[in-house]
Amino acid sequence: MVEVHVGPGLPSFTMLGLPDESCREARDRVRAAVLSSGLSWPDRRVTVNLAPPTHRKSGSGLDLAIAVGVLAATEQLEPESLSGRAFAGELGLDGSVRPVAGVAPMVGVDPELEWVVPSGCVGEAAAVSRGEVRSVASLGELVEVFAGRAAWSSVSSAVGVAHGSESPVVVDDLAEVRGQPVARLALEVAAAGGHHLLFVGSPGAGKTMLARRLPGLLPDLDHDIGLEVTMVQSAAGVGGSGLVTRPPFRAPHHTSSAAALVGGGSHMVRPGEISLAHGGVLFLDEMGQFAPAVLDTLREALETGRVSVGRVNHHVSMPARFQLVGATNPCPCGEAGAPGVCACDERSRHRYLSRLSGPLLDRFDLRVRVSRPEVGDLLSGERGESSAEVAARVARARARAIESRGMLNADLDGEALDRWARLDDDATALLRSEMERGRLTGRGYHRVRRVARTLADLAGGECDSVDGELVAAALSMRSVFDRRVVS
Fold first, then answer.
1. Average model confidence (pLDDT) for the chain?
2. Cα(47)–Cα(207) distance, integer angstroms
3. CATH fold label, 2-146
4. Per-residue pLDDT averaged across 239-249, rounded?
5. CATH numeric code, 174-476
């Protein structure tokens, strides 16, 4: 909340309430904007209080509110006309009102008010607000509207329902992928059940090409998740023109720091890549090149769907429920010990794969070996199934899971698995053998059952049990990850 007092004393401008440097600079931006708009600046003492005083304020989003407060305190605006209204936006020195990051969370604090925001932020504000949203291009225009000499700028009725993402959703067609039947099936299973997926293979095998086609297989976000994604993207300053309706796709570079993935900031915590991927896909290409400490920061989000960032003066919890897709070479040269081709010794291969910790690898439901496609498949002009065809099967499988279990299969706990993925004798014997041989952990046991349940849904099965054939198929897509070679 912004409070403004104009009283007697030497001309000055004092700002209270723990503003940071960028927020404190509002005193110069606001004064220049007021004068450039043909309005008068008081030659008195101006005191601005940013409540509550215990939280640090950051950025330029309060410029417009401060200007309106000064104009109301000097009777250039009727104070009564401001009742029930809230203002957000940065002021240019010429009086223009510019977009700022975080408008959606600001509106979410009190969505019942009538919000006045920059024209570039109307979409995300309308997606969150339950009241009226007004667009304003300049401070002078705002004064004219309140004086009754002009009308509010018209707002398109389509605003608030656009895709709303600065990073475009990847929609490459799966039909462009030649061959790779196992990897294609793994991609379909991951989309249908919400499973985490790791591709391991040589350079040129198509790992990245496959991963970038996952968003095209996923359905639109429901309203609640879309609203959360909109809020996160707005807070990070990557919001678009309205409510986000498509799953986001984030692909941070392998040089990214832990703070870049998790989020952070000295004065104001901003979302990181794993929160920006909320509701969509987080793709880590060249996963073996990421720092081990950076990769291990993913474990909390993979288990809880949230990430917590703590600082001395505040603690922030942000949503981070995403599908993790990783791609890595099996060794530094990528040829995985092929005689006469691989140039890596056993020590370098071990060091390379040791970046991926055992607990992190165990959280991948699907670990698929991707080989280079056959020459005949590459040269063939025949196209495979399109993303639209596969997405239709995925939608049916997801609908079956939601209608019967209330959640995707990747979220089923042990009790739910006992109800919806009961094992027959063959499946039990197969899993017992894998666990006794040390090839499957307790966590992996549950993940194999979840994948088997998804395979049953894709096949149209209505039975509440999974047989040995489905479990064997699930195990075949959970390859042993050896520190020397992937088999």
1. 87
2. 59
3. Ribosomal Protein S5; domain 2 (3.30.230)
4. 84
5. 3.40.50.300
